[in-house]
Specification:
Blueprint: H1 2-9, H2 11-22, H3 24-27, H4 38-44, H5 55-64, H6 69-81, H7 85-98, H8 103-134, H9 157-194, H10 199-212, H11 215-228, H12 235-254
């Protein structure tokens, strides 16, 4: 039945969602004694910059100076303040291509990718719950036998259509969320190259790599965090995370 198939198909989904919500306590504060944690970025980005240009003004300036990095930076900031985060990610991405060592811009861009990924992860969770609700009856049902020779009633086309729809919703939401975590990971890689001795950057890189499914890179970044911040209050938790990830890797490696 569908729900059995869904459980097999979406086993990774539950693991993924557990990571998303289980790591929230780390993502939004642990190790961020310098105020550079992801939570700080997202909270701070809500405020407006006094005297900054409006979106229309910044867009007009960029149209006049399409190659100006400063104009792109101003537009990205204005878009964020106006809540237009999708375009802000694009414009800020173009800016960091021109200014690859701007740590503050890289941090902002990674935060935007993570905010989108977390929202998409919630979409994935809602899609999974919807799938559970819509297919609840099929969990316990068995094919109806028509005679003593084992002939059964064929599948219900309506149920099959619902199954296909909810399965597609779950897969789509998960795929989009994971891609955003990959974008965050790539951005933190760039930031780590600019600030190689910042333990907070290593922690944020590790978290985004873990959520994107890059376990090996997550372990490497977590271990780098421990090396850079051995006395940080979060280090014991990070060490536990490293051991758990290594333990999860072992069966896969032996298989």
């Amino acid at each position: 039945m569908f729900f059995t198939r869904l459980r097999r198909h979406a086993k990774w989904m539950f693991v993924f969602l557990a990571l998303v919500f289980g790591l929230g306590f780390v993502i939004f504060g642990i190790g961020s004694d310098q105020g550079t944690g992801i939570g700080d970025i997202l909270r701070d980005s809500g405020g407006s910059t006094s005297g900054g240009p409006s979106v229309s003004e910044a867009r007009e300036d960029l149209e006049k100076n399409p190659r100006s990095a400063a104009a792109k930076r101003a537009l990205a900031t204005a878009l964020q303040e106006d809540g237009q985060t999708a375009e802000a990610r694009t414009v800020l991405g173009e800016y960091v291509e021109q200014r690859p060592k701007d740590a503050e811009a890289l941090q902002e861009l990674a935060g935007l990718h993570l905010a989108r990924a977390n929202a998409l992860a919630q979409d994935a969770q809602r899609a999974q719950l919807r799938a559970s609700y819509l297919t609840f009856g099929s969990t316990f049902s068995t094919p109806l036998q028509l005679d003593d020779e084992g002939a059964t009633l064929g599948p219900d086309p309506i149920e099959e259509a619902i199954n296909a729809e909810v399965s597609a919703d779950v897969t789509s939401a998960y795929t989009r969320a994971q891609e955003s975590y990959r974008q965050a990971e790539k951005t933190y890689e760039k930031l780590a190259a600019v600030q190689p001795r910042d333990p907070n950057v290593q922690l944020e890189l590790a978290q985004s790599a873990q959520l994107s499914g890059n376990t090996a890179r997550a372990i490497e970044a977590y271990e780098r965090f421990v090396e850079l911040a051995p006395d940080d209050p979060s280090t014991p938790l990070v060490k536990q995370q490293i051991e758990q990830l290594k333990g999860a890797q072992a069966p896969a490696a032996s298989g």
